[in-house]
Amino acid sequence: MGLLTKAESGWASLKNYLLDLLFPPRCAGCGRLGYWFCERCVSEIQTVEDRGTVPRRPNSALNGLRALGYFDGRLRKAIHALKYSGRRPVAKPLAQLLARYLENNPLPYEVIMPVPLHLKRTRERGYNQAEILAQELGNLTSKKVDVQSLIRHRLTPAQVGLSEEERLTNVRGAFQVLGEGLQGKAVLLVDDVATTGATLEACAHALRAGGASKVWGFVLAKER
Ligand SMILES: [Zn+2]
């Protein structure tokens, strides 16, 4: 089970393993048996390429924010499967899309970091979907993946239904960098979805305060 992460509790790992055995792979996009996310569905995802740049506010701590595509259709289904249905292997084809995007739209980064979940949330879900994506992307790009240096030390209410300003206030100060390992490093900060980018912004502030020289936000999907 190469997809298991350190943050997973033993019970969640065992539960997910048994679920995989009991329920064979079914495509997250179209339901086809034998696939986690089939090539046909992957090919239907429209990447936004250079238009993936998400507008940011002035004084942003992010050097840029890129999205692979929009949060709808097959991509939305795949993200939901990864995030809420315990279908962790869906991360592999999604990470392949991210890697291909980076090949076509290179960014100058040295280390890949996922947006962290609070430990309580990670325990509830059994894993952090952003961390799995980051690990898979690290395998494909041979870049270092750092899942230790950035932590979410404050549990924040869900962002759904909040305005952009409320979202920013909600997550401000929720993240913290541990140690000195990020001094002068250019970071690629990975998450599944960006709505207003408030969470990525809060992470970027913490990363800059922790010594990172650059922070690029990189997500699978952005809201239209
Ligand atoms: Zn499919």
- Gap from first CA to last CA: 35 Å
Helix content: 25-40%
Report the CATH architecture: 3-Layer(aba) Sandwich
Mass-distribution shape? globular
Please outline the major beta sheet.
Answer: 5 strands, parallel
Bound molecules: zinc ion
Q: What does the radius of gyration come to?
A: 17 Å
In percent terms, what proportion of residues is strand? 15-25%
Q: Give unreliable regions as ranges.
A: none
Q: Average pLDDT across residues? A: 89
CATH class: Alpha Beta
Could you state the order of secondary-structure elements as H and E? Answer: HHEHHEHHEEHEEHE
Keywords, separated by commas or semicolons:
224 residues, two-stranded antiparallel sheet, globular, 8 helices, 7 strands, Rossmann fold, binds zinc ion, alpha/beta
What would you note in describing this structure?
By secondary structure, the chain is an alpha/beta fold. It has one domain (10-222): 3-Layer(aba) Sandwich (Rossmann fold), CATH 3.40.50. Helix content is 38%, strand content 17%. A five-stranded parallel β-sheet has the order 1-7-6-2-3, sandwiched between helices. Strands 4-5 form a two-stranded antiparallel ribbon. Helix 4 packs across helix 6 (129-141) and helix 7 (164-171) runs parallel beside helix 8. The longest helix has 14 residues, at 91-104. It starts with 9 loop residues before the first helix and ends with a strand.
